[in-house]
């Protein structure tokens, strides 16, 4: 999913999770003190799960709503709306029995029909969901998204109110993990139709069926509150009465609020992380997320591979992660994050790496730059670099700007640091030259990254295209889907094509240095998918 400079990431099987182990007496914590004050680094763009694409939205959706499953510590499947799951012998039909005590905040029962409505709404081309591609593999989903079949033919049906049947075109090894991701959550048809275009744009234009409800969010403000949902089926196990979010784009500001007791968590800058290296409250969040440069290849200059390669080769990534970030982030080996998936003990990130794609070689860069300029028939280039407006993002773009301008003759870099929501919108509309993008794996498989850069993927904002790459990704989903080795090799070859062509320039795999008050217990953090699960969190006495 799309992430910003401070983005936290979610659940994955292949990566170990950070779990603040519950200790002390939960019963001793009075309800009046069960309020968590949490720092956030970016505004909340939307609460419409069909159109959400970013980590802040999905985090909030995950804690205010619920799907068939919840994903807990180490991505363990936990009870959600489904109380029982039956899988056919061929692995292509799932039958879910749903609980009868789950309600929406408007008082209506959560039923199988809510899942059918939600999934059909998301894959409907009229909705223009950027995440609809995740439904590929569910019967008829691809044809529906391509306008060849009606949404009613999607492989999901309600048999009464409390039995849901999902039919797949092919066996999906990660299907159950997807069911814990908000894109696959139910939606209340009455609310969607009642609120119309306002649906999901403010807390009052939304209904909830999860541990918390969202309040005090206008759609553009920089603070909001999650309030315990007294209609939630498992409310007895929800200890927090409220979670107050405050957006702070400056780590200096958030750290001061943390020190004064107004925040229970804060993200740290590189310098702060160094100074607090021995603090007992320091927590390093390691994520299955990669930051990279996307080049707008609708523009002639970025269609030139020599220009793209030259820009990548002048960036000293070791200096970047150690001096600028200083938060535990590491140099990316490629697009797919390290630790995400392994086959026969071999990490995919190692198997699919291309050394030159993340190397620093300024002599070679200058040769390629000169060659690229000559091919374009120019002697200089104006480069528009887009990123977020947080302190860390500003430090990052300042570093990248200096690396390019100081090493490539005739390069002039203009930087635009804008709010997260604006950066997302400009990326989608193509209003950039080069954009610093971030992606966190939605589930523990390399396809979660590699799917992004197929020619027609809605997340491919730079519009890079390669026919062989597309064929390999397609084969991994179809002809080779059931053959683990062939599928793995398809994905390895695909990433190497992307990296050799410098379709994107990988920068770093993200980690985030944070401080969390020792009184905060039971918060679950995982590395890919949805970031945080606060259902079991509480404040110790």
Automatic annotation (TrEMBL):
The keyword Transport appears for this protein: yes
Chief location of this protein within or outside the cell: other
Pfam families: SBP_bac_5
InterPro entries: Peptide/Ni-bd, SBP_5, SBP_5_dom
Alphabetized UniProt keyword annotations: Peptide transport, Protein transport, Signal, Transport
UniProt key word Ubl conjugation: no
One Gene Ontology term, aspect cellular component: ATP-binding cassette (ABC) transporter complex
SUPFAM superfamilies named in the record: Periplasmic binding protein-like II
Gene Ontology terms, MF aspect: peptide transmembrane transporter activity
All residue ranges annotated as the Solute-binding protein family domain in the record: 76-460
Location of the protein in the cell: Cell envelope
Endpoints of the signal sequence: 1-22
GO biological process terms, semicolon-separated: peptide transport
Family: Belongs to the bacterial solute-binding protein 5 family.
Protein's UniProt name: Oligopeptide-binding protein
Organism: Liquorilactobacillus hordei DSM 19519
Lineage of the organism: Bacteria, Bacillati, Bacillota, Bacilli, Lactobacillales
């Amino acid at each position: 999913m799309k992430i910003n400079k401070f983005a936290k990431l979610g659940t994955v099987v292949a990566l170990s999770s950070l779990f603040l182990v519950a200790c002390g007496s939960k019963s001793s914590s009075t309800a009046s003190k069960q309020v968590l004050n949490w720092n956030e680094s970016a505004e909340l763009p939307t609460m419409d799960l069909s159109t959400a694409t970013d980590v802040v939205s999905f985090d909030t959706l995950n804690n205010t709503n619920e799907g068939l499953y919840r994903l807990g510590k180490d991505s363990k499947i936990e009870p959600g709306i489904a109380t029982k799951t039956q899988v056919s012998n061929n692995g292509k039909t799932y039958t879910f029995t749903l609980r009868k005590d789950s309600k929406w905040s408007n008082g209506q029962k959560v039923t199988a029909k809510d899942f059918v409505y939600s999934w059909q709404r998301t894959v409907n081309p009229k909705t223009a969901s950027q995440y609809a591609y995740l439904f590929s593999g569910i019967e008829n989903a691809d044809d529906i998204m391509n306008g060849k079949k009606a949404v009613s033919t999607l492989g999901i049906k309600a048999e009464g109110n409390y039995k849901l049947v999902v039919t797949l075109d092919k066996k999906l090894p990660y299907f159950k993990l997807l069911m814990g991701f908000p894109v696959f959550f139910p939606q209340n048809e009455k609310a969607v139709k009642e609120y119309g275009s306002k649906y999901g744009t403010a807390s009052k234009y939304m209904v909830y069926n999860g541990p918390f409800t969202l309040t005090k969010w206008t759609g553009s403000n920089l603070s909001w509150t999650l309030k315990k949902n007294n209609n939630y089926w498992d409310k007895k196990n929800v200890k927090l009465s409220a979670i107050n979010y405050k957006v702070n784009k400056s780590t200096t500001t958030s750290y001061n609020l943390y020190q004064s007791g107004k925040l229970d968590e804060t993200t740290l800058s590189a310098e702060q992380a160094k100074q607090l290296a021995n603090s007992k409250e320091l927590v390093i969040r390691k994520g299955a997320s990669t930051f990279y440069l996307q080049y707008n290849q609708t523009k002639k200059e970025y269609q030139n591979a020599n220009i793209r390669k030259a820009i990548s080769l002048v960036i000293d990534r070791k200096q970047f992660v150690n001096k600028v970030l200083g938060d535990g982030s590491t140099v990316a080996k490629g697009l797919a994050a390290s630790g995400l998936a392994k086959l026969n003990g071999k990490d995919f990130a190692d198997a699919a790496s291309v050394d030159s794609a993340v190397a620093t070689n300024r002599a070679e860069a200058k040769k390629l730059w000169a060659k690229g300029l000559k091919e374009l028939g120019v002697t200089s280039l104006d480069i528009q670099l887009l990123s977020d407006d947080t302190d860390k993002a500003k430090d990052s773009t300042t570093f990248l700007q200096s690396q390019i301008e100081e090493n490539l003759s005739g390069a002039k870099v203009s930087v635009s640091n804008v709010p997260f929501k604006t950066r997302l919108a400009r990326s989608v509309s193509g209003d950039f030259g080069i954009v610093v993008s971030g992606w966190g794996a939605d589930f523990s498989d390399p396809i979660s990254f590699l799917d992004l850069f197929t020619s027609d993927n809605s997340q491919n904002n730079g519009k890079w295209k390669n026919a062989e790459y597309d064929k390999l990704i397609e084969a991994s989903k179809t002809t080779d889907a059931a053959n683990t080795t062939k599928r793995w090799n398809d994905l390895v070859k695909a990433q190497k094509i992307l990296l050799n062509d410098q379709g994107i320039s990988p920068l770093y795999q993200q980690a985030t240095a944070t401080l969390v008050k020792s009184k905060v217990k039971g918060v679950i953090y995982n590395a890919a998918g949805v970031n945080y699960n606060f259902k079991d969190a509480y404040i110790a006495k």
